[in-house]
């Protein structure tokens, strides 16, 4: 994560047990900001240095597309 980044949205959500996975909902304001629609592929990355998870549209980066 870049030091010059700006947080445009912050919220907390509870992780719940799903069907064979852990589920977290993405707030609608954030999905609208990122232009995420139902069925879109999302890329999850983890930065050990920042101890942070990043979620963004995969935009062709997914091996499943």
From TrEMBL:
Gene3D superfamilies: 2.10.260.10. It comes from the Archaea. InterPro entries: SpoVT-AbrB_dom, SpoVT-AbrB_sf. The keyword DNA-binding applies. Residues 23-58 form the SpoVT-AbrB domain. The keyword Isomerase does not apply. One of its GO terms (molecular function) is DNA binding. Pfam families: MazE_antitoxin. Keywords: DNA-binding. This is AbrB/MazE/SpoVT family DNA-binding domain-containing protein. It comes from Halorussus limi.
């Amino acid at each position: 994560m870049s030091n010059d980044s700006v947080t445009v949205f912050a919220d907390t959500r509870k992780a719940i047990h799903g069907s064979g996975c852990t589920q977290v909902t993405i707030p609608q304001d954030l999905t609208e900001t990122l232009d995420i629609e139902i069925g879109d592929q999302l890329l999850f990355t983890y930065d050990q240095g920042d101890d942070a998870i990043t979620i963004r549209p995969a935009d062709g980066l997914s091996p499943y597309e």
